[in-house]
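RETRY 2/3 - previous attempt timed out on the joint model. Re-submitting the same 292-residue input unchanged.
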Amino acid sequence: MLAVGTAVTLFVVVMGAVGIMRGRHRDEASIERDVPWGERFVLIAGLGVTGVILAAFFLVSVRAMASLDKQGRSTALTIDITGHDWWWEARYPNGAVTANEIHVPAGQRVSLRLRSDDVIHSLWVPQLAPKIDLIPGRLNHLWLEADKPGQYRGQCAEYCGLQHAHMIFFVVADPPGAFDRWMRAMAVPAVDPSDPLAQEGRALFLGQSCAGCHAIRGTDATGELGPDLTHFATRRTLAAGTLAVSPETLTEWILDPQSIKPGVTMPPADLAPDQVRAIVAYLLSLGFGSTP
Ligand code: CUA
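RETRY 2/3 succeeded.
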């Protein structure tokens, strides 16, 4: 494309220079006499040749795109990603579910199956892959590969409402062995806490409205409206990259999510301070337990 484009540009520049040198202070009749093939030339070079070049470019690009896409079909791992207002859900083939943190094995090609739960979102990890839309009622595919272990920031790239800017996620590329351990541990149900405060928090979580929207595998909480919290304490961020996870931020979030992320689906909790403390203790106990 660069070679053809350069040739075309040179040709146009040369023709322009010739035109300038011939001058323009001539009348219509003398132009007709000097260049009787003028109109035909404009038609052939301007329409015919340009059309052929553009059509050829189009066909070559379509073939290149198809072969790029095909490479993704030979991946060992497929992750299902769902866009929600305003967070990302990631489901792994072994039953592991998480949110806003997509772990992948470094140095391996991974394919993503993308859908949307509500409006059009767009998954974009600039360092790893092109943007791709998540469209309601449609399944899209993308493959990506992180060459080196590390954390790659991603962002929703299609305006999807009030908190579009707070629809952040991270692709975390682990060394393959560590990734396998992560995926296995993530699929294991939550372990009941031994700490009395966390136990109290567990009872509150299941008794209050929390369990209506959030799932914690291994308990009676099976809500599907919000992120799966089974191994919540292993995540780095809260509310799709809005806050770092800590007892303080989690307390603020539970008490008043609307002031942190206005418009978010989660309602404020009507809880006493020591109830919130118990729920926070429970959520922060949801690590990988003794099965890393
Ligand atoms: Cu989702 Cu913007």
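The CA atoms of residues 32 and 38 lie 8 Å apart. Closing ticket.
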